[in-house]
Design a protein that fits this description.
Helix content: 40-55%
Number of helices: 8
Strand content: 15-25%
Number of strands: 7
Structural class: alpha/beta
Length: about 210
């Protein structure tokens, strides 16, 4: 019986290693490396330390990207690699609807801290707004959802992130009923997640070698 159990787990371990070794280096680094895990945790830890020192009032907020900043979509990358496919909006939409993304390392502790301090979070993501309910479902499954969070997802191709950030600064567009906010921190995995004009808040950028505009 013992030999059977050992053999069974050996087969599982071998299969995992074999499939893992077939992944592109960028995806394998995110999925398996201690460096990726450590970096993400360090970024969230540093942000926690910094925000403890910041005065927070009703006008304060942080702007966060979602994918590869809060939500870990490496499983999507694994699946399209196994199929010999590359990114497409069709497969990506199906993945988002599944609401199966995991958390970026360190995110849960950071969100617990944010909730205790009652800091307003505004999510500005290029996920399409038509899939907001699936995104919320995913956040709930990960136990980081809060009904006070604001989601400014993409309405159409012209609805760039800088446009939505400007709505936050000026209290216009979808922020009209809420009012303007003072941003004390930005979180993202690409340069487009950060403001060039209103850079008073600290910026925290996460490693994402899997995709981007380079």
């Amino acid at each position: 019986m013992k030999k059977s159990i050992i053999f069974y787990f050996s087969i599982i371990a071998f299969s995992f290693c074999a499939s893992s070794s077939n992944l592109p280096n960028d995806v394998r680094w995110v999925v398996n490396s201690g460096e990726y895990d450590k970096l993400c945790r360090q970024i969230y830890s540093q942000a926690t330390e910094d925000l403890v020192k910041v005065f927070i009032d009703g006008q304060s907020a942080i702007i966060m990207d979602l994918d590869e900043t809060v939500l870990d979509n490496s499983q999507y990358q694994i699946e399209i690699n196994e199929k010999g496919e590359s990114f497409s909006m069709i497969s990506w939409a199906k993945w988002v609807l599944r609401a199966e993304a995991k958390l970026v390392p360190g995110a849960k502790h950071f969100f617990d801290f944010i909730r205790k301090r009652n800091i307003q979070i505004i999510f500005i993501s290029n996920r399409m707004n038509e899939r907001l309910s699936s995104t919320v479902k995913n956040m709930k499954k990960l136990n980081i959802y809060n009904e006070k969070d604001i989601y400014l997802l993409r309405l159409d191709k012209a609805d760039k992130k800088y446009i939505r950030r400007n709505e936050v600064y000026t209290g216009t567009g979808r922020m009209r009923a809420i009012g303007s906010k003072k941003i004390v921190a930005y979180f993202g995995d690409a340069m487009g997640d950060f403001s060039l004009k209103n850079s008073l808040g600290k910026e925290y950028i996460f490693p994402n070698p899997m995709y981007g505009k380079w």
